[in-house]
Amino acid sequence: MRRLPLALWVGGALTLLFFGLAALSVVWTPFDVTKLIVSSRLKPPGAPYLFGTDHFGRDVFSMVMVGARTSIMVAVVAVAIGMTVGVPLGLWAAARRGGWLDEAIMRLNDLIFAFPSLLLAILITATFGPGAVNAIIAIGIFNIPVFARLTRAGALPLWTRDFVLAARVSGKGAGRISAEHILPNLSSLLIVQGTIQFSLAILAEAGLSYVGLGAQPPIPSWGRMLNEAQTMIYVAPWFAIFPGIAIVLTVLGLNLLGDGLRDLTDPKLRRAR
Amino acid sequence: MTLLSIRDLSVSIHGAPVLHRVSFDIEPGEVVGVVGESGSGKSMTALSVMRLLPRGAAATGQVLLDGEDLSARTEPGMCALRGDRLGMVFQEPMTALNPLRSIGAQVAEVIARHRPGVDADRLAAEALARAGLPAAQFPLTRHPHDLSGGQRQRVVIAMATALRPRLVIADEPTTALDVTTQARILDLLRGLAAEDGAGLMMITHDLAVVAGIADRVVIMKDGAVVETGETATLFRRMRHPYTRALFAASTHRPARHGRAPGAEVAALDAVVREHPLPRRSLWGARPSFRAVDRVSLAVRSGENVGLVGESGCGKSTLARALLALEPLQGGAVRIMGRDFAAPGAPVIRRDVQAVFQDPYGSFNPRWRVADLVAEPFHLMRPRPTPRDARRKVEEMLEAVGLSAGDATRFPHEFSGGQRQRIAIARALITAPKLVVLDEAVSALDVSVRARILDLLADLSDRLDVSYLFVSHDLHVVRAITDRVLVMQAGEIVEEGATETLFSDPRHPYTKALLAATPDLEAALIAREAAQTAPGA
Amino acid sequence: MTLYLLRRAMVLALTMVAATIAIFVMLEVVPGDPAVSMMGVNATEDAVQALRVELGLTADPLTRYVDWIWGMLHGDFGISYTYRTPVSELIGERIWISLPLTLMALALSTLIAIPAGVLAASRRGTGTDMSVMGATQVGVAVPNFWFAMLLVLLFSTVLRWTSAGGFPGWDAGVGPALGALALPSIALALPQAAILTRVMRSALLDTLNEDYIRTARAKGLSERQALWRHGFRNALIPVLTIIGMQFSFLLAGAIIIENVFFLPGLGRLVFQGIVQRDLIVVKSVVVLLVFAVVVVTLAVDLAYAAVDPRLREGRS
Question: Closest Cα to residue B456, out of B254, B224, B179, B184?
Fold first, then answer.
């Protein structure tokens, strides 16, 4: 068994930790985050409140767990949107290289790239109102050109390789070649990028929730927790610190996982980074 | 005083040995050819002299330049030598130059580095002119992307010889170039070395090139020197079995049984293929480039046809047109009498298959050999059952010299020559009438090439399949074809029976091609004649 | 070169047109009747009709779109529904906070990242390299607004070096104004610098594997000289792309970070506009920000042409 990269272990462990906490939060949290116990407000970290309590007496640790669930769900769906729409677009553009379709897809990408995901979210929430679903749509739409561009860039050099020529000599058309030959050879690239986009989506969701455009109360969200914590930062710094650390560790874990996967799947061809 | 003396040089990289006690000398003014196949260690030897070995390399032994042991020099000491007393020319001219800087700046850089204060630009212009790029046609402000491969190699040679080094090392300098360009670059290298009284270490895999240019030859195999000696003597005596094998492979001609030419199998009728070029201005029509200009050719059953030409002449485009892989702007393609146009009906496609050049890029790395070889079954109606397909694949693998068990393995488990055998199996699995081979043996080592040519000749006879053999290598084409066509700038300039065309070419371009192609026998004879002539 | 730039400019102009159409459709056509959504469901029909007339909503969409574009090209962005003042005035005050903040952060990020990336690449595999990679790995994971909060906690509360936020206005002098933007731009710049450092390092390492570096060494240049003279400029090309993209991320980040420092920039304007359904303000701010991104993209294309001679002659 080859020695797996260290990044893979650390990243995998961190990622599993937060996915685990998120999954666990569905059935159990140390305290009920929907109950407001004013008598327990603003308690510093210590037994039994691992991370302390907020201004409504809610246990910060439990809120971090449920917030993990929100962030991960938003990120999963958004990246899924980006991949399921972006990858086929990229494959299609590469197969029709130089044609009007390729140009059209590239222009569409340019258009979406002109809007940072925050602006997209602003547009969507201004039209449809704020909420987790709209945050997902905004981040998802932004991910489409990311995957389209990446897929196209990865597919183009493959189209000139001799094994694709051989497939054409065997009578296969562009669609079949894209599915049987191009996509499998892009899988490691897409998995690595998917992990990175996932971590970026978590950051984006946190930012949107912080300004109030993401998940709305009563759904807990790390970003919104930080917003509420801001006004109390002098009296209850733990409320601001722990959700932030949670974000950093989750994103760090995913990035390390992505790095580890990249080292794993591209071994001899890459010199040591 | 011996210019360069390599004594017991052994190199390992991360513990794995790559050179074992390599020893040979170069005298001032002498041209020494270092010959070997891939993996023989010839490039490593050159990098060891320059001390440009990759990370993790450890070297023992001595490299003496003009009597001085270079291993005693520090890295700054070596930097002072490189470009000044040691010059090196590499194999890939297309990537050897920095694309963002002008050629004048890049040549002047080596001058300024070793001779501060001197007028570097003037000397750079002189060096470029000496290398065949006079400033009038090639101003110093030119950038590499405006130059052809041969011209870029001249720039590299100018950089390497600008300061009249004592030793010039050329590592496969012409392998990536056309045969006519190759001849001119070799002449240039030899001329410059003679003019400067420098030694030239000429590294190549091509015995004919070495016989033409080198005074002495060093033969390497698997990181060790196998035999050395004066060129003509070495090839006449050939003491070591590897030398004999190399020689035999270089001059090898597969045995062929003549077959009677029969009906037409494939034909091209005044085929035209144009590419649109990027726009130069907003007005007017978009310029286009005619890669194939009204070419007609025919291949009949029982015969193999060769298509030769230099890079850019359009022969690969022509091959792809025959395979209906590209749309045509004029003319028609017929296979077995039926019209064949992109995308190509399966029933016609199964009669014309192909083998491509790159044994490493010919296969999807994630597929097993069985699926790769069976891919053309996509064209069969009805499709063979999985059991039938499996059986046919195994038969075909045996027929190309592999074993049935290889079907479950992956391409990366095979060597270059073995992969070409798999490619041939894939090409023949639908029992086509014509196989287009586009530079199919060009990327193979000389000894492997000989065996693949044998295989191809044998299969052609046994299975009654015709070849269109596209290549820039005249020797290979001569070995395996009955008729040959010569292509230049999109047009066929001459065609005829192979032996006739080679012994008695008519068209000036064909003559130029043949004159420029190094020939091992002819070079050895010329060398011996020069030695026995008075005043040699 | 001119052809290349002309083509890029045309593409970006088209992008701008497409973007304005998208914005218009989203904010005027989709909500149905903007007047209704602005006044709320309980408004009387007369009041809504009066608003329609006031906003010029009685014409058909195409006319409204053209009028809107025409107005913007003349600097007229309409009248804010909530503030009853021309939007151009509102934006004019605030853009002089958001834009300088973004540009300061961009400059800071570039100034930190490029030397750090070159340092890490030239000392590849050593402790220096590992530390840089470790630091950037964490830096990339930090949300900039959280980092800003921590900075405020440290510098205002614990160290008492700076105030907790607010902006004195440019009238108070360039010095104090820049001072108020200092901490926010650091908070914005550092996470982006982490990304850019990694890109610079990776681009430089990639060029070090190119053949022309080997040629440079064969000419007698040391490893360091080859890296600087041949690797660096070539590595800048991918780095330029990322710097261009960073502008749009920094712009978005600036808008968010204004919230932490109580800076009266475009952020507060547009978020309040969303809450108060002041779609005119939202439309204008979004168009302006998209325009800024497009202009920066064109500037990056110009920079490419300056650096890469292959682009100057019309080859793509």
Answer: B254
Closest in B84, B97, B278 to C212, CB measured: B97
Q: What is the ipTM of this complex?
A: 0.86
Do C197 and C111 contact (CB within 8 A), yes or no?
no
Interface contact B80-C229, CB threshold 8 A = no
| Torsion of the alpha carbons at C142, C143, C144 and C149, rounded to the nearest 10 | -90
Residue A149 to chain C, least CA–CA distance (Å): 14
> How many inter-chain contacts (B to C, CB under 8 Å) are there?
81
Q: Is A173 on the interface with B (CB under 8 A)?
A: yes
Q: How far is CA B97 from CA A271, B143, B159, B364, in A?
A: 22, 9, 10, 32
Answer whether C233 sits within 8 Å of B279, measured CB to CB: no
Going by C-alpha positions, the residue among B100, B244, B513, B245 that lies closest to residue C308 is B100
What order do you get walking across the sheet with B352-355 strand by strand?
B352-355, B434-438, B466-471, B305-308, B483-488, B491-497
> Pairing between strand B338-339 and B352-355?
unpaired
* C-beta atoms of B378 and A173 within 8 A: no
Question: How far apart (Å, rounded) are the C-alpha atoms in residues C135 and C115?
Answer: 15
What residues of A are in contact with residue C135 (Cβ under 8 Å)?
none
* Percentage of the residues of chain B whose pLDDT score is greater than 70: 99
Question: How many beta carbons lie within 10 A of that of residue A121, not counting itself?
Answer: 29
Could you identify the residue written with the tokens 């979406």? A112
Q: Which residue has the tokens 């012409």?
A: B174
Which chain A residues are within 8 Å of C26, Cβ to Cβ? 123-124, 126-127
Among B88, B81, B102, which residue's Cα sits nearest to residue B170?
B88
The beta-carbon neighbor of B95 closest among C212, C220, C316 is C212
Query: How far is Cα B89 from Cα C226, in angstroms, rounded to an integer?
Result: 17
Q: Do C149 and A122 touch (CB under 8 A)?
A: no
Per residue in B86-110, pLDDT (tens digit) is: 999 998 999 999 999 999 999 999 9
CB B493 within 8 Å of CB B507: yes
The helix/strand/coil state of B23 is strand
Contact B54, C208 (CB under 8 A): no
Structure tokens at B302: 């029982």
Q: Are B370 and B390 in contact (CB under 8 A)?
A: yes
pLDDT at B142 over 80: yes
In this prediction the pTM is 0.87
